[in-house]
Amino acid sequence: MKDTAKDVGRDTASAGAAGTGPLGVAVVGAGYWGPNLVRNFQSSPEFRLRWLCDLNVDRARQVLGGYSTVQATSDYAAVLADPAVDAVAVATPAGTHLDVALAALRAGKHVLVEKPLAATYEDGLRLVHEAEERGLTLMCDHTYCYTPAVARIRDMVRSGELGDIQFVDSVRINLGLVQKDIDVLWDLAPHDLSVLDFILPDNVHPVAVAAHGADPIGAGQSCVAYLTLQLNTGAIAHVHVNWLSPVKVRTTMVGGSKRTLVWDDLNPTQRVAVFDRGVDLTAPQEIGADERRDMLVSYRTGDMVAPALGEKEALRSMVEEFAAAIRNRRPALTDGRAGLQVLDILEAASRSLEFRGAVVGLRTGR
Fold it and tell me: Which residues have CB under 8 Å from 280's CB, separation 6+?
């Protein structure tokens, strides 16, 4: 028997790719993140926002404003039945992502999902397989990846400007908000892990993780955590997340064999700085047999350069990438498999916490 649902998915994907007019989109969820998506879809010439769906219709109407022509509803089935809707953006709690996104894919809609992709790796894998089988775009809204700073970092890393990656160190700490249902790793680390996956070259990826956490205030889950990733090249990546810090810090350091880069997201005048400073190791055959061992090491102290960065809202770039992926029938820069990589690391980190920092292997490799 012919699979009608799959045919619908292929037909919708083809129409979206071939069409020159705006893509019809619906946002599901009018809570914390939904209004940001509404604003960016409404301002994009690539999309026409047709629906805002939320269990609380009054909240959806409030987000849209009194003069909006966008329809507010609590009836998700009506949204999916609308042939003018080419894509659905999901901004609901993580525990609902599987059901909401799966229904959209089965209705033949392209799907954008707020991070994390799903509540579990297995749920995320179901979404990835469903989208791939139907020829539909599945994209994860890893917003930080679309900032001008991270785009520049990705270019420098992948072009070889920094040399071989030797280490990555990320710090994301602030005071609160302590979550009731997830620990600090699941709350804050997805940002750093998505950026790591985004900037690393295709032949470099994490293979194992170890995590340590603490709950000094008795919140019931880790409020402070340290995560260490082993990369397939022998390099290391480290992530520090913390709800209890009295100061807010958002920094990432990427150390290469040629140069080291520092990204300070809270410094608007110098978000990215590149240092021509580091340690060089002379090959043993290049020195005489009588020379001391410590002469193998030399220190390089060159200039610091702060590249100029453009100013553009990350969500606007993300929305543009979603449209381009749909129209060109290609994976988005942060596609479903990028979201799956983050879930794999988070689940492995949770297992590591249970066994007091044991090293846990990963299932995926990008």
Answer: 297, 298, 299, 300
State the residue for tokens 């229904």: 103
Is residue 245 a contact partner of residue 227, using CB atoms and an 8 Å limit?
no
Q: What is the pTM of this model?
A: 0.87
Segment 212-234, tens digit of pLDDT: 999 999 999 999 999 999 999 99
Total H helices, total E strands in the chain: 10, 15
Angle between the N-to-C axes of helices 121-134 and 336-354, in degrees from 0 to 180, rounded to the nearest 10: 170
Q: Which stretches of the chain drop beneath a pLDDT of 50?
A: 1-18, 366
Question: What are φ and ψ of residue 325, in 5° steps?
Answer: -65, -40
Q: Mapping DSSP to helix (H, G, I), strand (E, B) and coil, where does residue 249 land?
A: strand
Tokens describing residue 171: 């710090």
Which phi and psi angles does 87 have, rounded to 5°?
-145, 155
DSSP-assigned states of every residue in 117-152: S-SSHHHHHHHHHHHHHHT--EEEE-GGGGSHHHHH
Strands 110-114 and 87-90: parallel
The DSSP letter of residue 179 is P
**What are 211's strand-pairing partners?**
227
Which pLDDT score is estimated for 233? Answer: 96
Model pLDDT for residues 233-273, shown as the tens digit of each residue: 999 999 999 999 999 999 999 999 999 999 999 998 899 99
Q: Tell me the one-letter amino acid at 169.
A: D
Element (H, E) at 51: strand 47-53
Report how far residue 84's alpha carbon sits from residue 243's, in angstroms, rounded to the nearest whole number: 43
Query: CA-based angle 132:136:140, to the nearest 5?
Result: 85
CA distance 249 to 264: 8
Mapped onto helix, strand or coil, the DSSP state of residue 187 is: helix
What is the spatial distance between Cα 120 and Cα 73, in angstroms, rounded to a whole number? 28
Q: What is the signed CA dihedral for 106, 109, 110, 113, rounded to 10 degrees?
A: -70
Q: For the chain, how far is it from start to end, CA to CA, in angstroms?
A: 36
